[in-house]
C-alpha cells in the first residue's frame, strides 16, 4: 500500500489549519509527509496549477471560504484533466444532508464533518490517511461517503 505523504489542506480558518498541521506532525513522526496549506480556493487552484504534476495524494477541502468556495474548487478540479483524479476529502463544519449530497454529486471522494475534539480530529485524519492511496482514490457508495468515527 502506497503511503499518503503529499497532502493539501484548503481552509480559511487559521486555527483549523494549525491543528491539522500539528496532527500531521504527530501521526507522521518521521516527517515524511508534506503538508501544503491554502487559505482559500483561489490560492488552492493557483498552487495546483503551478505544482501538478506531480499531483498531491489527497486534498482536504473546506467548503465555506472566501473568493472561491469548496464546491467551485471541486467542480474545477473534476473538470481539469490533470487534476480530476486527485482524491478530494471534504473537510467541513456542516453535517447537512443537502451539503453532503451536493459534495457527493460534485465528485468528492469522502466527507468529514470536522470533529469538535482534538483527539477525534486526530483519529479521523489518521483514519483517512490509513486508507492508502488506492482506496482513497476510489469512490464509496453514498452510504459510506461520510467518515464519522467515535
Secondary-structure map with pairings?
Elements: E1 6-10, H1 14-27, E2 34-38, H2 41-51, E3 58-61, H3 70-78, E4 88-92, H4 97-105, E5 110-113, H5 118-130, H6 132-137
Parallel strand pairs: 1-2, 1-3, 3-4, 4-5
Categorize the overall geometry: globular
Major sheet details = 5 strands, parallel
Mean pLDDT: 92
Order of helices and strands: EHEHEHEHEHH
> What are the segments in which pLDDT stays under 50 over at least 5 consecutive residues?
none
Report on the structure:
The protein is α/β, with parallel strands linked by helices and 150 residues long. The chain has helices at 14-27, 41-51, 70-78, 97-105, 118-130, 132-137, and strands at 6-10, 34-38, 58-61, 88-92, 110-113. A 5-stranded parallel β-sheet has the order 2-1-3-4-5, with helices on both faces. Helix 1 links the parallel strand 1 (6-10) and strand 2 (34-38). Helix 1 (14-27) crosses helix 5 (118-130). The longest helix is centred in the first third of the chain and has 14 residues, at 14-27. The protein is globular, with a radius of gyration of 14 Å. The chain starts with 5 loop residues before the first strand and ends in a 13-residue tail after the last helix.
Amino acid at each position: 500500500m502506497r503511503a499518503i505523504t503529499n497532502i493539501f489542506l484548503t481552509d480559511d480558518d487559521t486555527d483549523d489549519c494549525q491543528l491539522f498541521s500539528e496532527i500531521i506532525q504527530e501521526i507522521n513522526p518521521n516527517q515524511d509527509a508534506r503538508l501544503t496549506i491554502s487559505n482559500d480556493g483561489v490560492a488552492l487552484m493557483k498552487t495546483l496549477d503551478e505544482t501538478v504534476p506531480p499531483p498531491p495524494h489527497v486534498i482536504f477541502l473546506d467548503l465555506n471560504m472566501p473568493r472561491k468556495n469548496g464546491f467551485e474548487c471541486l467542480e474545477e478540479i473534476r473538470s481539469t484533466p490533470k487534476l480530476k483524479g486527485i482524491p478530494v476529502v471534504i473537510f467541513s463544519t456542516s453535517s447537512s444532508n443537502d451539503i453532503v449530497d451536493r459534495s457527493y454529486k460534485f465528485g468528492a471522494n469522502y466527507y468529514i464533518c470536522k470533529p469538535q475534539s482534538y483527539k477525534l480530529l486526530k483519529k479521523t485524519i489518521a483514519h483517512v490517511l490509513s486508507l492508502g492511496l488506492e482506496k482513497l482514490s476510489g469512490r464509496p457508495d453514498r452510504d459510506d461517503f461520510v467518515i464519522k468515527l467515535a
